[in-house]
Design a protein that fits this description.
Shape: globular
Organism: Sphingobium jiangsuense
Bound molecules: ligand C2E, magnesium ion
Number of helices: 12
Protein name: Diguanylate cyclase (GGDEF)-like protein
Order of helices and strands: HHEEEHHEHHEHEHEHHEHEH
Distance between the termini: 61 Å
């Protein structure tokens, strides 16, 4: 029977493909976990920095620290791959401490008008031991804690809301700001905004990309900007790439933006040059 034959073949093929992909993924994840455990992470982890720009003044107001892993065993591994694996395998706290140390060491050389944004994992906030270590590092930090923003991705705000809430409270008492990252991608964005004392949200780049062609995206960004204005909290729009997106955001009264339009994440050594270039009055010298 032709249909049955093809149905079967198709089904078997699908199962095979799924199995291969699934196994490959598991093997790949296992290799990453083993490499993470064996690596000299103090050496192999690097922090790069992406500017956050204030629209009204056209000034760089902060840099977000972003992790890069130059693995001796595996080559360059992106954070979208190794951070979730570090979280699942209980290694994230160690990574966070190393990365925070490097980010703070870089920020000590910046003008004091420039803030540091640093990504914390919600898993970090569920471990009292890691929270204590983070608090100690922030307390001894070479820059004022009032210049530090801690970003927490909302998709990672899982079950232990009470512990996360308590940790956020302590970090704010230290003088840090706490931001809700990738806003709109989680399951209950608005209830997070309601339940946790965030000082800022970062609108996920999926809403920004296509806001000039998709009316729904445009309206979501517009509403979120209005919402944060009404609530009196800060807002950064992530993933701005084009001049069209930039002018729409200006029109809508956006406050801060981050994206390839201004710069990709850069190495620490390039920051001084970037700031000097942007401080020059000639608009032709500006990126974008
Ligand atoms: P995130 O915190 O939302 O960081 C923004 C991501 O968007 C970065 O990706 C950045 O390079 C990228 N990006 C910025 N502007 C644009 C743009 O205009 N277009 C596009 N296509 N992308 C843009 P990256 O560096 O690959 O980091 C991915 C995610 O990994 C971060 O998302 C964050 O959730 C996590 N991550 C990175 N570094 C750390 C870290 O040190 N600790 C923790 N816990 N998570 C980190
Ligand atoms: Mg972030
Ligand atoms: Mg984000
Ligand atoms: Mg993200």
């Amino acid at each position: 029977d032709y249909a049955l034959y093809h149905g079967k073949r198709h089904r078997r093929g699908t199962v095979n493909i799924f199995t291969v992909d699934h196994d490959t993924q598991i093997q790949r994840d296992a290799a990453v976990e083993i490499a993470l455990r064996k690596a000299d992470l103090e050496r192999e982890l690097v922090v790069v920095f992406q500017p956050i720009v204030d629209i009204a003044s056209d000034r760089t107001v902060a840099f977000e620290a972003l992790a890069r892993w130059k693995s001796v065993a595996l080559g360059d591994v992106p954070p979208t791959q190794f951070i979730p694996i570090a979280e699942r395998s209980g290694l994230i706290g160690r990574l966070t401490v190393i990365l925070l140390g490097k980010a703070l060491a870089a920020a000590r050389h910046w003008p004091d008008t420039i803030r540091l944004s640093f990504n914390l994992s919600a898993h970090d906030l569920c471990s009292p031991q890691i929270v204590l270590q983070i608090i100690q590092m922030l307390n001894d930090a070479p820059i004022e804690t009032s210049r530090i923003d801690l970003e927490i991705t909302e998709t990672a705000l899982l079950h232990d809301m009470e512990q996360v809430q308590e940790a956020i409270r302590m970090l704010k008492l230290l003088g840090c700001s706490v931001s809700l990252d990738d806003f709109g991608t989680g399951y209950s964005s608005l209830s997070h905004l309601h339940a946790l004392p965030f000082t800022k949200i970062k609108i996920d780049r999926s809403f920004v990309q296509g806001m000039d062609s998709k009316p729904a995206s445009y309206k979501i960004v517009k509403s979120l900007l209005a919402l944060t204005r009404d609530m009196g909290i800060d807002c950064v729009v992530e993933g701005v790439e084009t001049v069209e997106e930039m002018s729409l955001l200006r029109e809508l009264g956006g406050k801060m933006v981050q994206g390839y339009y201004f710069s990709r994440p850069m190495e620490e050594k390039d920051i001084a040059g970037f700031l000097a270039d942007r401080a020059r009055p000639e608009p032709m010298l500006r990126s974008g």
